[in-house]
Amino acid sequence: MEREQLVRNRLLQLELHFKSIRYFDRRKDKQLESSLLFSDQRPNELIIIYCKEGFLTINSDDKNYIMDNNSYCIINNRAHLKAHDIDAEALEKWYELSIISLVGRNQSFKLSHENIACCQDTHTGIENYLQLIDYEDKKGELAEDEKETILQMLIQMLFTRIYFQQKNLFALKSEFTNEEKIHWLKKYIDNYYTKDISLDHLSNLISMNKYYMIRLFSEAFSASPIDYLIKVRIDKTKQLLKATNFSISHVGKLVGFGSASYFSKMFKRLNGISPSQYRKEHSQDNKGNN
């Protein structure tokens, strides 16, 4: 609790000032373009994107970030995103919140070594804050200091969740039992499936013999670590194939497959059909339901 309080205190010291908030609903405005996102970011500015429905994929420094329902990301001005780095084609409903920090970068709260941080909002508390800020901003009846108090509470929630998600994920203690290490490993794969993951990398993470790790993981989850990784990736591609028009190779790349042919091979092995056939069948189902 002491460490958590320290983190919260550091967050409260940041001088964050509200700039703007925009809510988008593609179903109401079919002409909405993804280029609206991050269109005018300035130095010392944070952008928060909350994805209520749909998918948002971001590529930065050759790393893929995938957001889906009830997830959010924080992007700072050092991300150097370009227009083609953002795929918001499958987004249906989302919020864009711009925040300007008047504190120098040297004093800023640092989430990680990366310029983009993503997290799942399982309790939708973030959306409640965004709705409140959006509503009060449109009314024009909320004083700036009151607005920024709400903003501070939101930022505290966002940063603290991401901070402790990252810290807890990598807080693998030496006194962990082998069973705890294996479950920790599964959590790591669930969170970092887009990264280049090998058996050697996984075994080094938990300081366990590679073959012993494979046996324990297989006993716990009825699949080897790599088979489980492939399943996680394939499950995500099925969602992307349904929700987007991304090319087959691009879908595979987004979730961590280095080869389009290998992705197609694994997809067919697990589903009995190719990715293109899966997309076609789903499209036909949609037409039949309309």
TrEMBL record:
<dbReference type="InterPro" id="IPR009057">
    <property type="entry name" value="Homeodomain-like_sf"/>
</dbReference>
<keyword id="KW-0238">DNA-binding</keyword>
<dbReference type="Pfam" id="PF12833">
    <property type="entry name" value="HTH_18"/>
</dbReference>
<feature type="domain" description="HTH araC/xylS-type">
    <location>
        <begin position="183"/>
        <end position="281"/>
    </location>
</feature>
<dbReference type="InterPro" id="IPR018060">
    <property type="entry name" value="HTH_AraC"/>
</dbReference>
<protein>
    <submittedName>
        <fullName>AraC family transcriptional regulator</fullName>
    </submittedName>
</protein>
<keyword id="KW-0804">Transcription</keyword>
<dbReference type="InterPro" id="IPR020449">
    <property type="entry name" value="Tscrpt_reg_AraC-type_HTH"/>
</dbReference>
<dbReference type="GO" id="GO:0043565">
    <property type="term" value="F:sequence-specific DNA binding"/>
</dbReference>
<dbReference type="GO" id="GO:0003700">
    <property type="term" value="F:DNA-binding transcription factor activity"/>
</dbReference>
<keyword id="KW-0805">Transcription regulation</keyword>
